[in-house]
Amino acid sequence: MINKKVENVQVALEGVENGMTIMLGGFGLCGIPENSIAELVKKETTGLTCISNNAGVDDFGLGLLLQKRQIKKMISSYVGENAEFERQMLSGELDVELIPQGTLAERCRAAQAGIPAFFTPAGYGTEVAEGKEVREFNGKMHIMELAFNADFAIVKAWKGDTAGNLIFKGTARNFNPCMSGAAKITVAEVEELVEAGTLDPNQIHIPGIFVQRIFQGSKYEKRIEQRTVRNR
């Protein structure tokens, strides 16, 4: 069995260069690859195209890369929690492609499955459909969407083994599974890394064939984006 383990985040992100397209798992601040994002900031990699559900908040998540002007283009479905993102977009500093959330997920999943394109009714008749092929299926109009073509997919899991098998926990099972294997190289950072063969096969969400590098992260903050409590 191939051992996918690397010693640290620095080794895991070897080969990341300026101008690359990178997928980053997570939903808001839930299940984001915190260690890898911090390392991208330290590497000062620039001109990145980032594919992610959203852009984090001003001082955490992808917001840290935005602060350093390391992102050239964001491909997202929701961007409403980041003031710096808004400023850069409105000023023209940041190129933004907004995509319906289901289409974003399916473009990841299609890349994962090796499917180059698919048709969806989402976005037909709107700006989303501009410049795209349109076809009718069963009396309903659909637009053609292309699978993503990313250099790296960086995901975060609760537990993994040295063969690259991954288990996600709770809501962190969001965009992480469909991004695993959806790029030329998939890097997984996990909270707990165990030896191959020790995970229950029935509990594995992503098989190791979709992962090229895996490492154990540390010092996760796991911030809550919007804390809501009820009055006593």
Architecture overview:
α3 links the parallel β2 and β3. The chain has one domain (9-113, 148-216): Glutaconate Coenzyme A-transferase (3-Layer(aba) Sandwich). The mean pLDDT is 95. It contains six helices and eleven strands. The chain has 232 residues and is of the alpha/beta class. Helices cover 19% and strands 27% of the residues.
Quick take:
By secondary structure, the chain is α/β, with parallel strands linked by helices. It has 6 helices and 11 strands. The chain has one domain (9-113, 148-216): Glutaconate Coenzyme A-transferase (3-Layer(aba) Sandwich), CATH 3.40.1080.10.
Q: Can you tell me the residue ranges where pLDDT is under 50 for at least 5 consecutive residues?
A: none
The CATH H-level homologous superfamily: Glutaconate Coenzyme A-transferase
- How many β-strand runs? 11
Give the overall average pLDDT: 95
